[in-house]
Amino acid sequence: MSRRRIFARFLAYIVTMLKLQKVRYYKLKDLQTLAEVAEAFCVSERALVRENGLTEPPKQGQILKIPLQSGNVYTARAGDDKTLLSGSEEAYALKNGESLYLGKRVIL
Questions:
Q1: What was the pLDDT predicted at 61?
Q2: Continuous H helices in 24-88
Q3: Are residues 66 and 25 in contact, defined by beta-carbon separation less than 8 angstroms?
Q4: Taking a C-beta distance cutoff of 8 angstroms, is the pair 87, 51 a contact?
Q5: Confidence (pTM)
Q6: Which CATH number is 57's domain given?
């Protein structure tokens, strides 16, 4: 195999890996809560805490890694419950935390 062909395959591999690692970061603004960031990026607070290893509330200016979650985003309506949305309360809690309220964006 020629050097040119090896190099072309290597570049194709690097491009593929970069596409797979679509990591997003966000700098926390003054007086912004974790709940507001989670809602803005359609992820759960629990996922943000887990992804960033937080043991206390984040500080202004802290850079947060926004996890990429697979699933459809749905806005909760009247009559929805955790089992209906995710199959079980445990599955719902893993993706979205414990709370469910009207208008909350949840990962299905």
A1: 93
A2: 34-40, 45-52, 82-86
A3: yes
A4: no
A5: 0.52
A6: 3.10.350.10
